[in-house]
Amino acid sequence: MLSLSRALRLDEIETTHLFDLAVSPAKSRDSGWEAPQRADPGLLRLLTTLDHVPALLLGRRGDVLARNGLLCTVLGTELDPGSSFMRWLFQAPEARERILNWSDFAAAAVGGLRYETGRRPYDRKLKTLVGKLRTEDPDVARWWNDHGVTDQTSVTKRIEHPHFGILVFGIEAVNTPHDPDQRLIVYTVEPDSATAALLPLLQSWAAQARSDPSLSTPRPE
Fold first, then answer.
1. What is the pLDDT of residues 65-99, one digit of tens each?
2. Does the pTM exceed 0.70?
3. 204 is in which domain, residue-wise?
4. Quick one: which of 192, 195, 183 has its CA closest to 151?
C-alpha cells in the first residue's frame, strides 16, 4: 500500500484515506457511529473560556455539538446544537453571502466529507447527508467527483458582517486523542488587527441587539 501511495505521489492525508478504503468490511463496521454524540467535557469547558472569539464544537458529519454566542453573531445564524454545519454551509443563502472565500472553504469541506466517508464507510447518516448535498448542489457534486480529500486543521476565513464590515479569521481545529470525531473550531485573530479591535464592539452590539431586536448599528468606519 505504501508503494502505491508513493507511486501516486499522495500526501499524508491522501495516504491515510487510501488505507481507510483498504480496511476490510468486518473491521470497518461499527454501530457506535450511528449513536448520538455528546460533547466532550474537556472540549466543552475549553469552549466556554473562549467567549472573546467565535468558536464551535463539531462532531461526526459536521453536526453542531456546542457553540458560543459570538460565533452566531459573526455568521448570522443560531446553529443550535443538533443542527448540521454542513447543511448550513451549502444550503443557507447567508453562508455564501457572508463567507467571502466561500468556494475555497466549501471545497475543502467537501474534501473533508470524502475523507470522513473513508474512515466510516458504514455511517448511513453520513451517506445520506453526502447524497443529499450532491443531489441538491452542483458545486458539491463537482467537487466530490474531483475525488480530493482534505483534513484541514488551519484555514483562513473572510466574513463580511452587514454592520461591521470584513472580518478575517484564522480557523484552527483542535481535537483530543481519545475522541478524534470531535473538533473544537476556533476563529482566531491576529493581535492588533482590525478584526481583533472590532470583536469587542461586535460582542457588545450583539448583546444590545438581543435585548432590542429593532436595534440597527451603523457600520464602523
1. 999 999 999 999 999 999 999 999 999 999 999 99
2. yes
3. 40-101+153-211
4. 183
